[in-house]
Write a structure and sequence with these properties.
14% strand; 3 helices; single chain; 49% helix; two-stranded parallel sheet; extended; alpha+beta; two-stranded antiparallel sheet
């Protein structure tokens, strides 16, 4: 498990295999999450680079689902389309 936290010494850190200490930006009223989102995107890109065919297939599935949601059609799995 990978823990992404602004506190490397949190209670959860002992359960994680990897702890990424990512500081959150501070505003006067709320915490900003830009650095956290950037870190997540970098992890996802690294995983996608490891198996690009699977990543591209997942992106195609995601785009198909977005189109279905926009159109209001019933969502069908890729397996049922071949039948």
């Amino acid at each position: 498990m990978i823990l992404i936290s602004d506190s490397a010494q949190s209670e959860l850190s002992s359960r994680a295999q990897v702890v990424l200490a990512v500081p959150r930006g501070r505003n006067d009223r709320f915490a900003l999450h830009g650095v956290t989102v950037f870190c997540l995107e970098m992890l996802l890109l690294g995983l996608a680079a490891g198996d690009s065919e699977k990543a591209l297939a997942a992106l195609a599935d995601l785009e198909r689902l977005r189109q279905v949601l926009r159109s209001g059609r019933k969502i069908m799995s890729a397996d049922s389309e071949d039948e």
